[in-house]
């Protein structure tokens, strides 16, 4: 069910010449085409892979942005103005989803049917409001650190409430923050290794390799979002 291999073509609304799926403008008459229900990779005629030349993507984005700019369509019939606007808004969404490393990974995983904890944050927040336990799962290797940190955070909140100054506690929390921030940096390079594994599995048609890379990316992103929340909690208390 690979979309890049589908042969389905649409005819240009203006001249009737059949178009490849991902065309933004007719290859024959140059008229802007209606948007298609495509994923964002296909919008840029890219395979569903994660190592991406973001410089080339940016160039493609600006070129298309200029070609779709409303000023260019001001004197055109309403229908064409609307088509350009629709293409332009899809272009912005697609670029936003693919340009950032984390956003791109999350987007690809969502295409693969994964719902990340980060994305279900709303559900978690409303559960918390209802007085239930925070649902985000603590990564097992962090259990001890998190336990310790939560004690320190609690102590610090108490100290603040009482108007006490505890320089040692403050220093401990500072170093906890640094520790978690360096874990975030490490997660970044780990993620890039997983991109390579994913891309290789895609190239080789290796379903098991794809699945393995996918599972590891999910675990890594969940861990990353967990650690980011810890940093946020520490910042809140230290501010
Ligand atoms: Zn045409």
Question: Quick recap of the structure?
Answer:
The chain has 239 residues and is mostly helical.
* Overall strand count: 2
Number of domains: 2
- Gyration radius (Cα, Å) is 24 Å
Overall morphology: elongated
Content of β-strand: under 5%
- What would the average pLDDT be, to the nearest integer? 87
Distance between the termini: 51 Å
Instruction: State the major sheet.
Output: 2 strands, antiparallel
Q: How much helix, percentage-wise, in residues?
A: 55-70%
User: Uncertain spans, ≥5 residues at pLDDT below 50?
Assistant: 1-6
Give descriptors for this structure.
two-stranded antiparallel ribbon; binds zinc ion; elongated; 239 residues; 2 domains
Describe the model.
The protein is elongated. The chain folds into two domains: 3-99, Helix Hairpins (Orthogonal Bundle), CATH 1.10.287.110; 135-238. Mean pLDDT is 87; it is low at 1-6. The chain contains nine helices and two strands, in the order E-E-H-H-H-H-H-H-H-H-H. Strand 1 and strand 2 form a beta hairpin. It has helices at residues 40-43, 54-67, 70-73, 78-99, 101-111, 121-129, 143-162, 167-203, 207-238, and strands spanning 10-11, 18-19. Helix 2 (54-67) runs antiparallel to helix 4, helix 7 packs antiparallel against helix 8 (167-203) and helix 8 (167-203) runs antiparallel to helix 9. With 239 residues, it is mainly α. The chain has a two-stranded antiparallel sheet. It binds zinc ion (ZN). Zinc ion binds next to loops.
Topology:
Layout (H helix, E strand, L loop, with lengths): L9 E2 L6 E2 L20 H4 L10 H14 L2 H4 L4 H22 L1 H11 L9 H9 L13 H20 L4 H37 L3 H32 L1
Antiparallel strand pairs: 1-2
Helix pairs in contact: 2-4, 4-5, 5-9, 7-8, 7-9, 8-9
Bound molecules: zinc ion.
Zinc ion (ZN) binds next to loops.
